[in-house]
Amino acid sequence: MIRYFRLFIIFIIAIPLLLHTGILASTETDRKVTIEDFDFTAIFPELEKGKVVITKQIKSKEKKANANAHILIEAKQQEILDVLIDFSTWHRFVPYVKKASPVKKKGNSVWVTFKNKIFFFGFAYTLKCDIDPENYIISWSLDKSYPHRINDTTGYCRIIKVNDRQSITTYSTYVSVGKLIPKYLENHIANKSLPKLMKSLRKEVMSRKKH
User: Reduced to 3 states, what is the DSSP secondary structure of residue 183?
Assistant: First the structure.
């Protein structure tokens, strides 16, 4: 019993050290963000009930997380976009984000450094966030020129008008945390945290509308 306890302690100490020293550096090439078109007809009844609809999620045997989630928000596209581009407040509605700090801006691109913590795993990374205000899309990708403790991540938020008072927000994410990170953590990031994220985003948008 003591032996297994010691192995567990070594495991939880070793993972952050390996991440920090870069031993788990990515061998993958940078992924490009692909904005998908989606027909919401089939899922709209569920969205109207206030539910978060997941249309893509990872399987337990996969090593990478890739998931899409959709939610209906009683707000205009611009009202939702205003929340999303306020990057320093992402810790309010994005699970595990403890701090988000914009570090550079160029045109419609903003570089944001995130400090996250999942259970006892702490890690930081910087995303290049591209804002398309005309189409109400924010896309992001990992900038590997900055220190990072994850292999790769890309994603986007797309806001689609339903009518003058409702919009559908789609959140799509791909993340590869690291080869030695337990698979259940990657599953949790992709599948379990998405509904919470979307509901928190809706709550944040509605809260700002009241002020």
Answer: helix
Q: Is 159:168 a contact under the CB 8 Å cutoff?
A: yes
Token pair in block for residue 139: 């896309």
DSSP string, 44-79: HHHHHTT--EEEE---TT-SSEEEEEEEEESS-HHH
What's the N-to-C CA distance of the chain in angstroms?
56
Half-sphere exposure of 117 (CA within 13 A, CB side): 5
Range list of β-strands (E), the chain: 53-56, 65-73, 97-106, 109-118, 121-132, 137-142, 152-163, 166-176
pLDDT at 129 over 70: yes
pLDDT at 6 over 60: no
As beta bridge partners, residue 167 has 73, 161
pTM of the model: 0.77
Count other C-beta atoms under 10 Å from residue 44's C-beta.
15
Ramachandran sector of residue 8 (left: φ over 0; alpha: ψ -120 to 50; beta: rest): alpha
Helices (H) and strands (E) in the chain, counts: 5, 8
* Chain centre distance of CA 86: 15
Q: Are 159 and 80 in contact (CB under 8 A)?
A: yes
Q: Specify burial of residue 138 (Cβ count, 10 A radius: 0-12, 13-18, 19+).
A: buried
Task: For residues 101-113, give the mean pLDDT.
Answer: 96
Alpha carbons 17 and 8: distance in angstroms, whole number: 15
